[in-house]
């Protein structure tokens, strides 16, 4: 028999191939391409600092303008070992020269667009062979100038991989056997399942690169147009990729990229022996992105949304009050979050009891328990239910309102147990005093506190 009653009871899973996996960041590159976003160099620098806190191994940045270069200088001046700052270039020597002009950058990505619409329509090249020549020339140029390389195989999930991309990758490997091959699921057509063949199947692409072409370093870069970006990133790891390129909050082109925070959570909480990342600043990082970059974080967003540890409905909140494991996937503090209970139209008596008791205890600076059948509690519940049944109220009951109900129903009918009366009487040396006196004292104290 197995008993799963606590987080520690749940088994962790293993990546089947057991390879070391890492995360590279594209928040200040693809993320910054998000329409309507303008990231200042200072903000890129602050993002870099958050990535450092988490323990992200690598990031990429453009080097095209003064703002990019200013951000790079700020980041480099920190002297951190990680994230390593790497460059990004199109497949031409001029772009690679721009990367080479930055002191301290030792690795660059090179954009190699492989689908036919990219080769023929976007770039206006006459043939696939011309594209191949352009890419290999750029790669050779980077290698000759001492850079480590990453080939960003753009739009690979809509390309003729057997006839064009794989032969190209073979030539890339001949030039630089250490080149990281980035599988770009540029428009999000990748499918995370085994048995889906070219060009969509992430498992089959990774396996082919690894087993047939001996690629040592395989990275995924997945877009979320079909909502599969994180699943595709994990599928990459599952079948042998050792890098995943992601953005924080999934910001980026169109529907964005695979979300870093989801991947981090998956690795840290579900995969065996994975404790190299620190997730405690994730909620704070999301608040920073909201405040400084203007990214609105949906309240139900995994990991960092306001609702991730908020409980309103009767059955859920009653469960969580008894044992958070019932309806919380992991303890809030893991990601720097906080549990909250809310009173709303789906609440039952237990969460109301909990909130009222908490409010009352705070107000009176004592610890007393309220029973579910307390008449005053039931009266508050009836008032709240009426609000919702009248169909005018469309929001939760705020903490201030709970406080007002507590004052209304408990201030003049304070609930103090017989035992408590006796104890207070004994402490006061008031042997003759009856419970009404004690209630009076308590009432007076509450007035002092409230007024
Ligand atoms: C899928 C992605 O996310 S790719 C990255 C997208 N991000 C960005 O574009 C943001 C950064 N880009 C920029 O700052 C500018 O576009 C620059 C500096 C790169 C180029 O600026 P411009 O010279 O004004 O070119 P413009 O933006 O109009 O067009 C893009 C050029 O890149 C070329 N290009 C596209 N893919 C590739 C490639 N794989 N290799 C080489 N060149 C490429 C296009 O063919 C086009 O050049 P062309 O007009 O000579 O055909
Ligand atoms: O640099 C890359 O990752 C390739 C371009 C890209 O962002 C993409 O394919 O989505």
UniProtKB/TrEMBL annotation:
UniProt-listed InterPro entries: AIPM/Hcit_synth_CS, Aldolase_TIM, LeuA/HCS_post-cat, PYR_CT
Region (Disordered): 421-451
Pfam families given in the database record: HCS_D2, HMGL-like
Record Gene3D superfamilies: 1.10.238.260, Aldolase class I
Top-level taxon of origin: Archaea
Reaction(s) the record says it catalyses: acetyl-CoA + 2-oxoglutarate + H2O = (2R)-homocitrate + CoA + H(+)
Keyword Transferase: yes
Coiled-coil ranges per UniProt: none
Gene Ontology biological process terms, A to Z: carboxylic acid metabolic process
GO molecular function: homocitrate synthase activity
Record keyword Transferase present: yes
Keywords recorded for this protein, A-Z: Transferase
Comp. bias intervals (Acidic residues): 426-435
Family: Belongs to the alpha-IPM synthase/homocitrate synthase family.
Protein's UniProt name: Isopropylmalate synthase
Organism: Methanolobus mangrovi
